[in-house]
Amino acid sequence: MANIEIDFDACVGCGTCAELCPNTFEIRDEKSWVTGDGADCDLAEAVDSCPTSAIIVEGIEAGGRKQV
Ligand code: SF4
C-alpha cells in the first residue's frame, strides 16, 4: 500500500486529485484529504497533475516518474 500524504500548506483545493482518484482523495474545507490507498487509480498521474506538488507519495517523485 502506498504511503500518501498531502501538504496542507501547499494544497489549494483545486479538486484535480479527487477527479483523478475519487476513491483516494476527497476535498473537504478546500483541502484534499486521503481517504483511500490509491490502489484503483494512477497515483503518478495525480502527483504529476497537482498544480502545487502537494501530493507526496512514497516512491513517486513530482513529475510522475516512478522510482525504482
Ligand atoms: S490536486 Fe493538489 S492542490 Fe489540487 S486538491 Fe489535490 S492536493 Fe490539493
Short description:
The chain has 68 residues and is of the alpha+beta class. It has helices at residues 16-20, 43-49; strands spanning 4-6, 25-28, 31-34, 55-57. The site of iron/sulfur cluster (SF4) has 16 residues, from helix 1 and strand 2.
Named CATH architecture: 2-Layer Sandwich
- Estimated helix fraction: 10-25%
Q: What count of helical segments does DSSP give?
A: 2
Strand arrangement within the widest β-sheet reads: 1-4
Radius of gyration: 10 Å
Quote the beta fraction: 15-25%
By oligomeric state, this entry counts as single chain
- Please state the structural category: alpha+beta
Shape: globular
Q: Please, how many domains?
A: 1
Quick one: how many beta strands? 4
> Would you tell me the overall average pLDDT?
91
Compounds present? Answer: iron/sulfur cluster
**Straight-line N-to-C gap:** 16 Å
Layout of secondary structure:
Elements: E1 4-6, H1 16-20, E2 25-28, E3 31-34, H2 43-49, E4 55-57
Antiparallel strand pairs: 1-4, 2-3
